[in-house]
Amino acid sequence: MKSTLVLLLISSMFVCALAQTAPRRSSGANMPAGYWPLEKSQPLVDKTQTVSLAPDLSHLTAGERAAIEKLLEVGKIFQS
Predict the structure, then answer these.
(1) Structural contact between residues 68 and 6, judged by C-beta atoms closer than 8 angstroms
(2) Cβ atoms of residues 37 and 27 within 8 Å
(3) SS3 27
(4) What is the Cα–Cα distance from 33 to 31, expressed in whole angstroms?
(5) What's the rounded Cα separation, in Å, for the pair 60 and 2?
(6) Is the pLDDT of residue 79 over 90?
(7) Which residues of 55-77 are buried (b: 16+ CB within 10 A; e: fewer)?
(8) pTM score above 0.70
(9) Does the pLDDT at position 71 exceed 90?
(10) CA-to-CA distance for 52 and 13, rounded, in angstroms?
(11) Within 13 Å, how many C-alpha atoms sit on residue 25's CB side?
(12) What is the DSSP letter of 36?
């Protein structure tokens, strides 16, 4: 159960990171009414873009820690 939760948290981090790397649209380009222009929304995105997780992993088995290391390696690949 604990390892499932850790894997879910890490997967969520990757999904969030990938969602934030989509191509940016130019300001006001075919935006529906009510959407903020890039000049207004970008400062908010810049403040909230980084996600840091620091769970206590001391209770995990050696195999679970190895799986976490592999997931972190994959995360670095996605981030680059």
Answers:
(1) yes
(2) yes
(3) coil
(4) 7
(5) 8
(6) no
(7) eeeeebeeeeeebbeebeeeeee
(8) no
(9) yes
(10) 8
(11) 11
(12) P
